[in-house]
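Lab meeting, action items carried over

1. Structure of the two-component assembly. Owner: GW. Status: complete.
Input record:
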Amino acid sequence: MAKKKLRDEIEAGELNLLPIMNLICLLIPFLLMSAQFIKIGVILVETPRLSRVQSSQKKKKKEALNLSLVMTDKGFYIKSRHGAECPEGVSADKKLCFPKKEGKFTEKVLRDLQLHMWYLYASKYKDPSSYATPEEKHTITLIPEPTIKYDDIVRTLDMIREIPRGAQNPPVKHAIPTSGCSMKYNKKSGGWGFVESGGVSVKQTACMYFRVTLALGSS
Amino acid sequence: MSEMNPEQVYWFAKKKQKKKLKMEARRKPEDMPFTITSLLDALVIILIFLLKTYGSDPINITQKEGEMLLPKSVTMTNMADAVDILISASTILVRNNAVVNVKNGKVDANSKRDGPDGFFIDPLFKKLKDEAKKLKAAEKQGGRPFRGDAILGVHKGTPYRLLAEVLYTANQAEFKTYTFAIVKMRD
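Predicted assembly:
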């Protein structure tokens, strides 16, 4: 009899979970509908006008290298103040250093471009005296023709920004962090800085040409 | 009252047994209550996961085949709060408000100040100028300083000419720092 009374008391004290179940069951479909499962990131770019303002603020003592990458319907062409910057053995007469394969900017074409950009960055123009300012070492002007698709521009930006893994000419002497050349926004200063990996800024270990100025090429 | 024959006795006994079984079956749920605690635990875990993924980015870009598909990139840089300009296959939107229509990767010449070869898109300029005014007014009220930051979410099939027109117009409307929204290929 006493046991039955105790059992009745316990049963009467149980929480009624149904209202909270109802609430959760309503919230889940709502959140499922509005949730974004893909992760969105950003790439920073500059425009010629912005670059001009910045560069005019500095007194130029040395001549700038003015490295530019032209994207045409036929492929890539690289130039600087010294003229064409194509790989050795490639004629610059047709203004084409890396032609498209089967009418596309294939992964192979982009990888070849990346390795050559690494050669220019880490070997040919390694010396800071080649540049007007220290920042210019990381600067490039990307000049796509008006018909170039945005997707190809983003893929090209990826290739010129990141130091290529497994490059041999010259070999990469340090470990490239998995985070790659990623940046972070400083809310206080309102500017973009670099992520640190192992206490070292990825600017030193993962970034090549991250200061990209977009300009418009002629068709 | 006449006596029942054995067949009737059997029939009554069977009916009584059936009734008893029915009663027992009806009583069973009271004896073994359905426990929803474990189900509730699972739902709470799902809810927390969804709440964590919801609204972590400053802007929300809905992907739609043929209309708005962002390109993929290896970058791991996260978004920062800024005015969002979306260029889809059919519309240019500022803060999710349609500003001007796009047809075959081009803005109608009537919407451009300098005709078909011009870069200045009038309705986009007006909208961005309004946004700049609002942000500057908010700054005076103690809000975030206006720095002219814009995030561009661009459909991957968009020709560069249209993007250049949008960048030019945004620049005229005091938006001078640009980030391109992409889909991250690595976490």
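2. GW to write a short summary for the group page. Key points so far: Chain A is about 35% helix and 20% strand. Residues 107-124 of chain A form the longest helix (18 residues).
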